[in-house]
Amino acid sequence: QAKDSGRNRYRFFATSMNEQLNRQRAIAGALRQSLEGDDFHLVFQPQIDFNDYHIQACEALLRWQPNDTSLQAMPSEFIPIAERSDLMIRLGQWVIRSACRQLSKWRAQGLPHIRIDLNISGKQLHQSSFFNFLNEVLDEYGLQASDFGIELTEDVLTGADSNLLAQLTHMRDAGMKIAVDDFGSGYSSLNFLKHFSVDTLKIDRALIAKAPESAKEQAILEAIVQLGHKLNLQIVAEGIETELQAVFCKQLGCDQAQGFLYHKPMPAPQLAQLLTS
Ligand code: C2E
Ligand code: MG
Ligand code: MG
Ligand code: MG
């Protein structure tokens, strides 16, 4: 009996593993096709200042509508799949180009200037031509490094060699903001800051969600804010959903906030409307 159910469990596990692999393979194929077509778009989520609640910047987030709707996926599913091949490079280039096109369009429409923050994956950043490509597209659209911010995760920064850090420093000197994304979800040692400076820590949503009810998470959050401020960093609280979380993060000294409580990610025309209203 026990052996039987064990075997069934194994079979169930193997089947779902198989299904998962099939889905991943199908998504990779569909992403490749979509890069030829027009199945991606960007949405934008505003970041607000905790002092006066004005919109400081917006984060560009990738959305995908494949022809085969059964493959419909969010970035948390399809980005890691793209990361395992050359797809991420091309997808990342699509994102940079689209964000530049959007920003130049907003400028032409006379919209108030707003910074766009881009998520850059490790694979993208470690590609030797990354900065050349970025600067080329900026030039093409008549934009500056200071029009953009990039969000990198801690492991990407920890794994960066001196050459990469020098290139990042160069972009930062040119005015590009650099944020550490999902801070507080990994080791969060800030050790990399000995060799390289960033502008912002974006505190992970999971930590923000737990902090109001958990003394432990509260202590960690408090320590991050204090240490960050001592290092002259801006602190963004990510994924704020409730008034309680907002009050809490503001009290602890977070500088900016991003979350569904304020704004959900929205299509470009909606953000334009928000910025002019
Ligand atoms: P992230 O960079 O940490 O982005 C924040 C994610 O949290 C977004 O999910 C956003 O929609 C979601 N979010 C914001 N506020 C709230 C909130 O109040 N509650 C909840 N529950 N969620 C909130 P999204 O768009 O699904 O993206 C997930 C992740 O995928 C991003 O996390 C980022 O790591 C990655 N990603 C998205 N777009 C890109 C891209 O263009 N390039 C790369 N390399 N990665 C991307
Ligand atoms: Mg991000
Ligand atoms: Mg994040
Ligand atoms: Mg993330």
Automatic annotation (TrEMBL):
<protein>
    <submittedName>
        <fullName>EAL domain-containing protein</fullName>
    </submittedName>
</protein>
<feature type="domain" description="EAL">
    <location>
        <begin position="24"/>
        <end position="277"/>
    </location>
</feature>
